[in-house]
Design brief:
This protein is mainly β. It contains three helices and eleven strands; from the N terminus they run ββββαβαβββαβββ. The strands form two sheets. It has an eight-stranded mixed beta sheet. A three-stranded antiparallel beta sheet has the order 4-3-10, with no helix packed on it. The radius of gyration is 14 Å and the shape is globular.
Amino acid sequence: MPANPPSHPSVLQINISGNGGLPKTPIARVFVSRKGLSGDYNKFRMTKLKGDPTSAVLLLPIETIREFAGKGYGVTAGSMGENFTLDGVRYDELSVDRRLLLGRKGSGPIVKIERVCDPCDELLIYGNDFPKVAHGKRGMYASVESEGYVTRGDPVVFL
């Protein structure tokens, strides 16, 4: 995978899973509501977290995925359950309470980062030690402050 970052942060891939599970499937465009992405089902969020709106969206930079792939884990964009695979964003930039516009001003959603997503047993498909290796770097859960549409390649703007 090339490691050349774009000049501006962007949405590299949008990922959903209609029935839950991993990996998620890439799509070109999606509506993001306060409940999450249209067409996406996250079993953990819906059953254990009772649809908690602070877990509506999962964000993960492609660089983090490349880091794991470089260590021999068979992960690619969407493999770790993230809804948005981000390009040109470092993991440490996704800090709690940080707000991001995903997409275009006036039509894209604004999300607020709430907390780290802890690795689950679904990640065992990538190796028995992978959940432990991914601890602290599985992605960041975000709530949706304003709803909107996101298209693959849209900008990511830190607010």
